[in-house]
Design goal:
4 copies of one chain form a homotetramer. Chain A is an alpha+beta fold. Chain A folds into 2 domains: about 15-50; about 55-130, 2-Layer Sandwich (Alpha-Beta Plaits). In chain A, about 40% of the residues lie in helices and about 35% in strands. Chain A has 4 helices and 5 strands. A 4-stranded antiparallel β-sheet of chain A has the order 3-4-2-5, with helices on one face. In chain A, a hairpin with a 4-residue loop joins strand 3 (about 85-90) and strand 4. The longest helix of chain A is centred in the N-terminal third of the chain and has 19 residues, at about 30-50. Chains in contact: A-B, A-D, B-C, C-D. Chains A and D meet through helix 2, strand 2, strand 3, strand 4 and helix 4 of A and helix 2, strand 2, strand 3, strand 4 and helix 4 of D. Strand 1 of chain C pairs antiparallel with strand 1 (about 5-10) of chain D, so a sheet runs across the interface.
């Protein structure tokens, strides 16, 4: 995790109380963890604004595997960018529908391009890209 | 602003460096301000998840004022909810297009309803609701 | 509104039924209006991805006007970019809190910069930028 | 895919031209596919607003596997909700960092809860939930 350093933060009493309520009710284990998460989230957003950053992503999509040639097309697109698709996972939802998740690594602009192309393919019904990070810089 | 209290936060050295770079390059004036903003943002998001919260919002939309009866309809919807529309601002964009911003106050669910109805009106081309807060609890 | 043209769309029976349910329950007045809105929304998102596009925006923010020099700072920032701030509206929320909405016009990258700077100012508690359009191209 | 039906849509000439430019440059294969995708996306968003809907999701997160007991905690949370976690995929990013993707199925409110708990666990650095659908109703 890298060496931990400690620093002071000043906050309005009322805001801190709200934060503590939130921590006790829901997500995080303590204030530092909450604050680190919020900072990391912002930094990852900013990383993606630079189209040359090397980023990690996952692309989730739901499709109807009976659509003619859809699977061939999806496979071909992934092979055309084989350097970018680190791995994939497939779930059979019902007789028609499949869900697939790809883990992607590459330049932000190239990852966005591949995502656009896959989500725009006929038969791909819904999907979304998660923009995350290799974890090194956060 | 309420009384300020001070507490310690521990963070990985590398993450803190990234945060400081971000602060020096861009938005905030110091670490505490950055962290307070990130906390407030999350708390406001959570406030809106409770449909009974009393919230503040702004609704921005662009419309073509030549569309028959559009202005009458928009005015009527606002009057039907006159308790919710605190004020409005109008900008003439060109011969056809207007931009309007409403400041709204009410229960989260009612504000969302009014927003849906206005954005769905024929002639309203584009718009978005900003979900914010009265500032009291943050 | 420009001349209307008509074209055919094919859609799965089940999906069309769902769309019609949505239209009858909520937002839009008819299918064409619904579809035009969805198309416009996507086009506006894409317009903002080109940092040189001339765009319209609104910036909504809540602040505590007792914070020293905050109003001077906010006024100065707006004057430094007086070409970009077309108009503004102010609402007194309570003894401490104000809400302000600015209507902005400029290059996407410059609008984003000004928005970052205002939202990062000490005393500005919460805010958000709405990315919209002059309406000409949609 | 279900039976295809055909209906007419009217649209301003300028807007249609923009849509066609977008289709030819980027994502979709034709107008119907573009419009079906935009409709599905909106319907899925609305499905998630009902906390009782049965939904599909993927949860992507990056974590440092050296953090004490993190893997045990993540495994335990998944087992506590074994009905919800349909499958998972793991990618080793470097000596410290891992990326994991879970495919989740359940009530919207329960999926959101589990996602909040995992993303708030100490050592989980970044992550995001993709809200999608079983494909049956879209």
């Amino acid at each position: 995790m890298g060496k931990l350093v400690r620093f002071g933060v000043s906050m309005e009493e009322g805001l801190l109380k709200k934060l503590d309520e939130w921590i006790s009710k829901h997500e995080w284990t303590n204030r530092s963890e909450a604050i680190r998460d919020l900072v990391r989230q912002r930094l990852v957003e900013k990383e993606w604004e630079n189209s040359d950053s090397t980023v990690m992503a996952s692309l989730t999509f739901v499709y109807d595997h009976h659509v003619t040639e859809l699977q061939e097309r999806l496979t071909r697109m992934q092979h055309d960018h084989h350097g970018m698709v680190l791995s994939s996972m497939h779930v059979h939802l019902d007789h028609y529908n499949c869900m697939e998740v790809l883990v992607l690594k590459g330049k932000a602009s190239e990852v966005l391009d591949l995502s656009d192309r896959i989500l725009g393919t006929r038969g791909v019904k819904h999907g979304q890209l998660v923009r995350t990070s290799s974890g090194k810089t956060i």
